[in-house]
Amino acid sequence: MDYIVNIFELIAALLATYHYKKYNKTTEKYFLHFLWFVFILDFGVGGYVGNVLKKNNSWVYNIYFLISYLFYFVWYLKIIQKTIYKNIILLLTCLFILLDIYCFVFEHNNNYHIKVFVFGAIINLIATLFYFSELLTSKIMIHIKYKLSFWIATALLLFNVGMIPFMIFTEEIIKSNENLYQIILICFNLILYTCYVIGFIWSKKEYNLS
Fold first, then answer.
1. Burial environment of residue 202 by CB neighbours within 10 A (0 to 12, 13 to 18, 19 or more)
2. pLDDT tens across 149-182, in order?
3. Using CA atoms, how far apart are residues 96 and 33, in angstroms rounded to an integer?
């Protein structure tokens, strides 16, 4: 089961590359680089440290938490229009960075920084709701299924709603059944990358011009 999530990541990155012309004029263009970064970090660095060197690779994913969430926050800041929403996301992003610094300094990096992940996921949910509230009043609403940002936001909504309680109770789940932990993690990643894949395939260039 170790490499199932890597397969999802690779498929999403390949399809992002193949359909790049559909969204290369939008802020979603950066997802091409981001998805390849995720695959290389997870499969390459994380896999090498954990499976080849047989060492604890939690620090790799703690770095990933920081970079990935900051990427999502910046993306939302670019696509959200209302100033008040932007200011809230900026404030929460500053708090997120402070929390991450605290965890790197005062918590052991051989353990996942659960507080960082959960707080980042909560900010992501808030930003997603801001985006959807704007989308509901926009003219693009009737063609929403062809807009890549809609599928990305949907992916983040579904993924983070499930991952927040999962990460909070992760130690209890591992202690009770480690295979169950792996299965749940795979399912959430399947939802995330399936939404990405649908977006890359289904989106149309004329609805991804901004």
1. middle
2. 999 999 999 999 999 999 999 889 888 888 899 9
3. 23
DSSP 101: H
CA 200, CA 148: separation in Å to the nearest integer?
7
Q: Flag whether the pTM goes above 0.85.
A: yes
Residue 114: its H or E element: helix 114-135
**DSSP state at residue 52:** I
Helix (H) or strand (E) holding 163: helix 148-168
Rounded Cα distance, 49 and 64, in Å = 14
Task: Map tokens 């052991």 to a residue.
Answer: 108
**Confidence check: pLDDT of 138 > 80:** no
Ranges of each domain in the chain:
4-205
Instruction: Tell me the C-alpha to C-alpha distance, in Å, between residue 11 and each of 4, 17, 152, 171, 199.
Output: 11, 10, 15, 30, 13
pLDDT band at 114 (very low <50, low <70, confident <90, very high): very high
- pLDDT number for residue 143: 76
Query: Under a CB-based contact definition with an 8 Å cutoff, are residues 148 and 22 in contact?
Result: yes
Q: How far apart are the first and last CA of the chain?
A: 39
122: nearest Cα among 74, 164, 183, 80? 164
Phi, psi torsion values for 208, nearest 5 degrees: -130, 50
